[in-house]
Amino acid sequence: QVQLVESGGGLVQAGGSLRLSCAASGNIFRINVMGWYRQTPGKQRELVADITSGGSTNYADSVKGRFTISRDNAKNTVYLQMNSLKSEDTAVYYCNADLITFLSTSRSYNYWGQGTQVTVSS
Fold first, then answer.
1. Phi and psi for 61 in degrees, rounded to 5?
2. Rg of the chain over CA atoms, in angstroms?
3. Which uninterrupted H or E stretch holds 116?
4. d(C-alpha 44, C-alpha 33), whole Å
5. Helix or strand or coil: residue 72?
6. Nearest to 36 by CA among 25, 24, 50, 23
7. Between the chain's N and C termini, which has fewer beta carbons within 10 Å?
8. What tens digit of pLDDT does each residue of 58-95 get?
C-alpha cells in the first residue's frame, strides 16, 4: 500500500558529499513528518534529521552544519544532502515517514524504507 524507496548511498572518501533521496508512493493522503535515521552494527538506530509538514527541521548534534534535510511535497520526496563526510558517518541510512493513507484517515502510521548503505573511507 505504501512504499518508501531510498537511493543515493555509496562509497565516498572523507570530506566528500552525497545526497540521499527517499520517495514515498502509494495511497498517501498526507505526510506529517519525514526523516532519516542511521544504524551501525551493535548500536541503536538514531535520528539524523527530520522535517515536518510545516517545514521545521531537526538535526542530530553530530551532523549540524554538515547535513541539510529538505523536501518536495509534490513528489512526496525527502532529501538529505551530506557534506564534509566523516568516517563516523558510515552506517545504513533509513528513510522514515509518519503518514496518513486514504484508507484510514483517522490516524497516522509509521513506515520505513529498506535502508541504503553509506560508507566513508579515510
1. -55, -35
2. 14
3. strand 116-121
4. 21
5. strand
6. 50
7. C
8. 999 999 999 999 999 999 999 999 999 999 999 999 99
